[in-house]
Design goal:
- One of its GO terms (molecular function) is hydrolase activity.
- This protein is an alpha/beta fold.
- The protein has helices at 13-23, 42-55, 79-82, 104-114, 129-137, 167-171, 173-180, 191-194, 201-208, 213-233, 243-250, 297-308; strands spanning 3-9, 28-35, 63-65, 120-124, 145-151, 186-189, 255-264, 275-278, 289-295.
- It is built from 12 helices and 9 strands.
- Strands 3-2-1-4-5-6-9-7-8 form a 9-stranded mixed sheet, with helices on both faces.
- Helix 4 packs across helix 5, helix 5 (129-137) packs across helix 7 (173-180) and helix 9 packs antiparallel against helix 10 (213-233).
- The protein is globular, with a radius of gyration of 18 Å.
- The two termini are 27 Å apart.
- Bound molecules: alpha-D-ribofuranose and calcium ion.
- The site of calcium ion has 9 residues, from helix 1.
């Protein structure tokens, strides 16, 4: 039985690698890719999702456009990391895959109502605006979701857009607050994990040595994407965030964490978007999240590189 997933995303080079990993993995049935504003505005993230599927040779994938801005706050983007196109590093032609006419939020709701209860996993790679809007518009979908696996948050590592907030949560903290308080059980791949997964030269070279067009594109994307965080952190390579969501689905044994309570700060300007992680259980708040803290980074890159080699050249 394939695992049915919806990928919610704001591509972004790291989102792109996550999408390619999912499309290269026969265990997964990608029911659709829903896009939103995040790393760059929506008109580019939806176009980028279509380009990425064409890189994978998958013109069959359904791609939807969703939220063009956060629920409450003004949109904050990250062109300084991803470039003006969001996929800087390799120039791709305008996509031929059509954008689906249905809104992403309606697609999420319709799919969860139509598919057998507890069989659809939501893989979120960006802000949680689409998911929050779907849950608010149709609360009946909450118990029908198998699980939400998200890249977001940070605790031991702090934040990456403010000292305490991670970008996906910070962009739309009100959406995150809705999702974290919807009675769902969330699996979180935070900065505490992704900062251990660095795109070192050796690892990018291994991807480039696959010697296919798609591997050349991935190596070019990562070479561009890493320059911002290499300068920021002084490391060989940058944290590769979003593919960890898909890798967790494929090989959860690469990761370890703890069930605990995670709440979202939405009141303080100083700590807006902070994920407050009760790692040591000092409160009686519900344990709403499986919060990952450790990862086998070499195991992750072995999986990623092997799967990327399965993509059509
Ligand atoms: O903080 C990292 C996250 O923000 C990743 O999902 C990256 O693509 C950006 O969306
Ligand atoms: Ca992302």
């Amino acid at each position: 039985m394939k695992t049915k997933i919806i990928i919610d995303t704001d591509p972004g080079q790291d989102d792109a690698v996550a999408i390619l990993l999912a499309l290269a993995s026969p265990e997964l049935d990608v029911l659709g890719i829903t896009t939103l504003a995040g790393n760059i505005p929506l008109e580019k993230t939806q176009s980028n999702a279509r380009k990425i599927c064409e890189v994978a040779g998958r013109k069959d994938v359904k791609i939807f456009a969703g939220a063009s801005r956060p629920l409450v706050r003004q949109l904050v983007t990250a062109e300084e990391v991803h470039g003006d196109t969001g996929l800087n590093g390799y120039d791709l032609p305008a996509p031929e895959i059509p954008l689906q006419p249905q809104n992403a939020i309606d697609f999420i709701i319709e799919t969860l109502l139509q598919e057998e209860i507890g069989t659809v996993t939501l893989c979120t790679l960006g802000p949680l605006t689409n998911i929050a809007m779907a849950l608010t518009r149709e609360p009946a979908i909450a118990p029908r979701i198998k699980q939400i696996i998200m890249m977001g948050g940070g605790y031991f590592e702090g934040g990456n857009i403010t000292p305490v907030a991670e970008f996906n949560i910070y962009v739309d903290p009100h959406a995150a607050h809705v999702v974290f308080n919807a009675g769902l059980h969330l699996t979180i791949l935070p900065l505490d994990v992704t900062h251990q997964v660095l795109t070192t030269k050796k690892r990018i070279d291994a991807i480039r040595q696959i010697s296919t067009r798609s591997s050349e594109i991935v190596a070019a994307w990562l070479s561009y994407y890493q320059r911002h965080d290499e300068a920021k952190y002084g490391t060989d390579g940058a944290p590769l965030h979003d593919p960890n969501v898909i890798a967790y689905l494929l090989k959860p044994e690469l990761y370890s964490g703890r069930h605990c309570n995670v709440e979202i700060e939405i009141a303080s300007d100083l700590t807006m978007g902070e994920t407050v992680v009760d790692w040591w259980g000092v409160t009686t708040r519900a344990k709403n999240a499986y919060y990952m803290r450790d990862v086998d980074a070499d195991g992750f890159f072995t999986l990623l590189t092997k799967r990327l080699s399965h993509l059509p050249s």
